[in-house]
Amino acid sequence: MSDPLKSRIEQVLLMAGKRAQEAEVFVGSVDDTPVVFEANRLKQLQTNRGMLVALRIVRDGKLGFATATSLDDIGSLVDRAVDISHFGAPARFELPSGQEYPRVSVYDREAETFDVDAMVELGQSLIARVREHTPDLLCDASVGRGAALVHVMNSRGGEASFTRSYFGLALEGTLIRGTDILFVGDSESSCHPIRDVDWLVKSTVNQLELSRRQAALTTGHMPVIFTPHGVVSALIAPLAAAFNGRVVLQGVSPLMNRTGEQVFSPELSLRDDATVAYRPRSRPCDDEGMPSRVIPLVEHGVVSGFIYDLQTAALAGTRSTGSGDRAGASLPSPSVSNLVVQTGKTGFEDMVRGLDEGLVVEQLMGATQTNVLGGDFSGNVLLGYKVEKGEMVGRVKDTVVSGNVYQALSAAIAVGREARWVGAVHTPAILCPDLAVGVKG
Amino acid sequence: MQRDLIESALKGHEADYVEVRLEESRSTSVRYRGKELEEISQPVSSGGNVRALVRGGWGFVSFNEPGHLREKVGLAVAHARHVGRGATSFAATEPAVDVLNETAAKDCSAIALAEKKRLAEEYNEIVLSTPRVETSVVAYRDRRRRVVFASSEGSYIEQSNSDLALRVAAMARDGGDVQQSGLSTGSRGDFGQVEGLHQQVRETALRAVELLSAPRVSSGEHWVVLDPILAGVFVHEAFGHLSEADFTYENERMRQIMVVGRRFGGDHLNIVDGAAVPGLRGSYRYDDEGVPAARTYLVKEGVLVGRLHSRETAAKMAEPVTGNARAVDYHHPPIVRMTNTFIEAGQASFDGMVGEIKEGVYVKNWYGGTTSMEMFTFSAAEAYAIRNGRVAELLRPVVLSGNIFTTLENVDAIGDDLQMNQGGGCGKSGQAPLPVSNGSPHIRIRRCLIGGA
Lengths: 441, 453
What we know:
The structure holds 2 protein chains of 2 kinds.
Chain A: H1 3-17, E1 22-38, E2 41-59, E3 62-68, H2 74-85, H3 109-112, H4 116-133, E4 138-154, E5 159-177, E6 180-190, H5 198-210, E7 220-226, H6 228-234, H7 236-242, H8 245-249, E8 270-273, E9 294-299, E10 302-303, H9 310-316, E11 324-325, E12 333-334, E13 339-341, H10 348-353, E14 357-365, E15 376-388, E16 391-395, E17 399-404, H11 405-408, E18 414-422, E19 425-439
Parallel strand pairs in A: 7-14, 13-19
Antiparallel strand pairs in A: 1-2, 1-4, 2-3, 4-5, 5-6, 7-19, 8-9, 8-13, 9-10, 11-12, 14-15, 15-16, 15-17, 17-19, 18-19
Helix pairs in contact in A: 1-2, 4-5
Chain B: H1 3-10, E1 17-33, E2 36-41, E3 44-54, E4 57-63, H2 69-83, E5 97-101, H3 113-128, E6 135-151, E7 156-174, E8 177-187, H4 198-211, E9 220-226, H5 228-240, H6 252-257, E10 271-274, E11 295-300, E12 303-304, H7 311-317, E13 325-326, E14 335-336, E15 340-343, H8 350-355, E16 359-364, E17 368-371, E18 375-380, E19 382-387, E20 390-395, E21 398-403, E22 411-414, E23 419-421, E24 426-428, E25 431-434, E26 437-440, E27 443-451
Parallel strand pairs in B: 5-7, 9-16, 15-26
Antiparallel strand pairs in B: 1-2, 1-3, 1-6, 3-4, 6-7, 7-8, 9-27, 10-11, 10-15, 11-12, 13-14, 16-19, 17-18, 18-21, 19-20, 21-27, 22-27, 23-26, 24-25
Helix pairs in contact in B: 1-2, 3-4
C-alpha cells in the first residue's frame, strides 16, 4: 500500500474511532484504457480513472455507512456515516483482525503497461483475420487493459491490499443477408496480456461455419446441449442465486436445508474459486478483508456449501466464506467470484454424435429474465444449431428453450471433457436430455 | 468549478470538437430484505469527463478530480488524434447557453431520510404480513444530480434534476418451489408518485402466493394480449433499440433494412420516442451533446418515418438531429439512447380484444426484455389463460419472443388506454440503468412465440 494513501486511510479510521466503536475503510480505484473499434475501424481511445471510498462504522451497535469518490473531505465522510448510523441496522458481525491471506497471483505489469499502439494492432489483426473468412462481416471490437487497486483497513487491525491487472479482447460480428441478421463473436480476458488472437479468430470462424445453413426444428421436447457460452447464458444465474447465503437466509433458496442431499446429477460438481491465478475476478481477499478460499458448492450432485459475507454469515450463525463483494457504492453482499464447473467424461463431438435429433445452444437470449430464484430459465436461441443424426446441420432461428435447473440438472446429464472460461465462469458443455423447445411456424 | 475555468480549458486545442461534462450527485438508497434493513445510505459522487473529436476519431477521458482540467482536455485531444484517420462528420447545432433547475412537485431531495425509510418499511410490512409470503425485497433509490456541459462551440448548459425508483418484490416458497412477484415504478424525482401504493403492494404479495399453485403454459405459438406495462417493454425491445441510429449508420445492409418508408405494421401502429414529452423519467431539455430534446415519430401508420440520433449518426445519415445522445454517468461517453417510448392509443377496447380469443394468454407486468435487433424477448411477470373470450386462471410467468419482421405485423389490435410505465431502466453497451419510460395501450399479437413447459 502506498504510504500517502495508507496514512489518509489511517486518518479516517482515527477520526471515525472518536465517534464510533468500530470502523472500516475500503478504497477501490481503477485505471483502464480501452481501444474501441466500430464497423471494422478504429473509433475511440479512452482513459478512465475512478475511485470509491467507503466508510463503515459500528456505533452503539448500529451500522453507519458512507461513500465518496475522493479522500479529500474525510470530515464529511465521517459525519455522514454517523448520521446514517441513527437509522442503521444492528451490526451482527465483528470486523476481522489481522488475517493470513493465500498467495493469489493477479498482477502482471506487462498487462497494465501494454503499449497502446500494440493494442490497436491486435484489434486490427483480429478484425482482418475474421474478415478473411467472411469479407461481409461487420465487426465491433475492443482491446482493453488496466489495473484495479483494493485497500481495506479496520479498527481491529485488519489490513489487506492488492493490485490486479486486467487485459481483455472482445469481438462482435454482424452478418446481414436480406432480412436475416447473424451475430457471432467471443471474448477473452486475463490478468496477463493476450498477445495472440488465434483462439478468438478460431472460435468466431467456427460460429460462422456452423451458421452457413439454416435448419428448423419442430415444437416439442428434445435433448439440448449447452456449449460453455450456452451454460453461462441460461444455467448459471439460477445456480448463483440459490447458493447465495443471503437468499438462503431469506428462506427462498430451493437448496436451503438440503446440504448433504443428492439434488443434482452425480455428474455435476461446482465450486466457487477466487484463488485461480491470473483471472480478473480472482483475489487474495474479499472486499471486507476476509481471506479467499475454494468453496465447494456441489460435489457429485450433492449440495455442499453456500457463500457468505460477514453480516449474512453472522445472521445465519455461520462464518464468512470470503465472498463479500461491493457493487458500486453499496454495502458488501455475498457474491460468487469464479464459478468452476468440474469437467466430465464426454467429449463435445461425442455428445453431438450421440443425438438423433436435438439442439446445440450457444447463446440463449433473455433466459435469466424470469423466475431465476425458482430455478427457471427461458429464452430465445440467439445462436444455436440443429443436430440431425449426430451432426450439426445448420443454425436455428425463432426458437425458444425453457426449463428449470433443478429438473434439467437432476436428470441424466452429460458433462463435457473440455472446459473454457466465459467471463468468470469456467465450464464445459452440458447435455440436458429433455427440455421444452418452442418453434415459430 | 467556475464557468470561465471550464471555458478557458476548452480553448486553443487542435480538434474538430471538444466537450467537458462535470457532474455531482447525491443519492439515497433504502433497502429492506425480509425483516432486515439491509442497506440505508446516502452516497455522494462527483466526477467528469472530456470528449474530443479529431478526423472522425474520438478521445475520451473520465475522472473523479476535475483539477488540471486543461491537461485532461489535452489528453482527450491526443487520444482522438491517435485514432482519427478519416473525416469528421458531426451535425451542426446552435450552441446553447442555459441554466435549468428542475424540481418535482414533491422533490425527493427535499424529503427527509426518515420519511423515505418509513415508506419502504410500510410497504415491507404489508408484504411480510401477507399469509404464506416467505420474504420480501423493498428497494427505494433516488438521485439528485447537477450536470454542467460545455463545448468548444460555445455551449454552456447546467441541468439539475432528480430521478427516483421503487421496487417491491414478494417471494413465496413451497418446499423447493419458489415463486416471486414484483412491482416496479419510478418518477422524475416526485416522491408523491411512489406514495399511496399500499393496495398495489398488497396485490403483488398475494400474487406470489397464488403463483405456487399456478400451472405452466405450453411452449409454442399463442394468441396473446399484452397489458400496457408489458406492451411498453415490447415496443422498447421490438422497435426502440432498432431505431437507435448507431446500430445503422455505418452498416450499409442495416440501412437498407431500416429504410424510411418501409412498412413494419398495420395502419393502426404509431410509435413515438421523445424526451420533450414532459414529466417522465426519460424527459430532459438538452441531451448530453447539448442538443435540444425532441419528439420523434419512429413509425407512423405502420411505416418507418424516423430514427434516434446523436450528432455523429445524424450527420452520417443526413437526417435531422433528435437529441438522443445520453450517458448514464460521467464514466461513459454519450451514445444513442431512447427516452420515453410509446405506442400511441388506438381504438380497440380491452374487452373486445379478449372477447375474440377462444384460447390464448393475457400477459401482464414485466421481468425484463432484450434484443438482438432481429429477434427479441420480453418477459411477463404475470400470465393468465384466456378461454372463450374471458380472462381465466393465473399461469406461471412466461418469456415471449418475437422477430422484428413478423411480430409487429402480427399486432392485430391496439387499445384505447395508453399508460406510461416508469419502472426499471435501460441497459446498452455497459451503460445501465438509464432512466427511461415506455408505454402503450393494451395490444394483441397473433401467433406470438412463448417459452413454456
